[in-house]
């Protein structure tokens, strides 16, 4: 849950004085006008902790610990700091010239990640949450994947602008730009890891499918640089639960149970 969830689901007071003074500290305060107050219910969603606490005194929000909820910007700052390798490196390693070898190595990492995703599918089906969490935090899904996408995004001499747009930017760093496959994969991996043990296997498979389709988008625009020794299996579309025939989805135990139940019903009649 984030500050946006609360502020959008709890309408603020409409009746406010012409102006009010809000204290942010014992020695600091600022004047709050109605127009600013109106904007604060939407535009203020990205405020920091200090600003939110100031508004807690004049907002219809209880309990007061709502003021500790992070805004979306703060959530994304934490994500970037913990998940995006180059976020804390001050751009180091981004100024060098991209070589063909760099591109080939990066595409190979995309292929390796696609292959490892097949293992993730089976782990999800088997309820192996601990093993799945460990797999999602392997280097291939974190540092290797991100750095490879950074290289491909900057590979002006080897990929077309359209192909590089497919790769896109980090999740939370897109601004008004098209995010692309990297952001989709990052968001799905983080959501899956965060909710492991809560999601059912088919819900986990849905998240994994988003990651797979994102990586396959990159895979499809880098065909010239594929490692032909790595055989990527054909994509299998995710089957919706609503499309699964009830009888075909039964295992042996369910079938035996239904047969026994039918027998007992017939015996009773």
């Amino acid at each position: 849950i984030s500050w946006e969830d609360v502020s959008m689901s709890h309408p603020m007071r409409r009746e406010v004085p012409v102006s009010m003074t809000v204290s942010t500290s014992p020695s600091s305060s600022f004047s709050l006008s109605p127009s600013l107050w109106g904007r604060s219910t939407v535009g203020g969603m990205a405020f920091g902790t200090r600003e939110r606490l100031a508004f807690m005194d004049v907002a219809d929000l209880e309990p007061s610990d709502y003021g500790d909820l992070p805004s979306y910007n703060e959530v994304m700052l934490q994500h970037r700091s913990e998940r995006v390798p180059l976020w804390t490196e001050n751009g180091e390693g981004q100024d060098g010239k991209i070589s063909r070898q760099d591109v080939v190595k990066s595409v190979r990492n995309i292929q390796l990640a696609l292959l490892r995703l097949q293992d993730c599918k089976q782990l999800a089906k088997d309820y192996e949450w601990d093993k799945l969490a460990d797999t999602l935090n392997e280097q291939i899904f974190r540092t290797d994947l991100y750095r490879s996408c950074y290289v491909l995004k900057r590979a002006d001499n080897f990929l077309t602008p359209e192909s590089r747009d497919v790769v896109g930017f980090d999740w939370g760093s897109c601004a008004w730009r098209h995010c692309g496959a990297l952001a989709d994969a990052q968001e799905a991996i983080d959501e899956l890891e965060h909710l492991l043990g809560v999601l059912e296997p088919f819900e986990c498979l849905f998240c994994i499918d988003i990651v797979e389709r994102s990586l396959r988008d990159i895979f499809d625009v880098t065909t010239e640089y594929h490692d032909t020794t790595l055989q990527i299996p054909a994509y299998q579309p995710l089957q919706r639960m609503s499309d699964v025939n009830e009888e075909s989805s039964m295992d042996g135990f369910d079938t035996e149970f239904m047969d026994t139940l039918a027998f007992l019903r017939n015996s009773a009649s």
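The longest strand covers residues 20-25. Strands lie at 20-25, 28-32.
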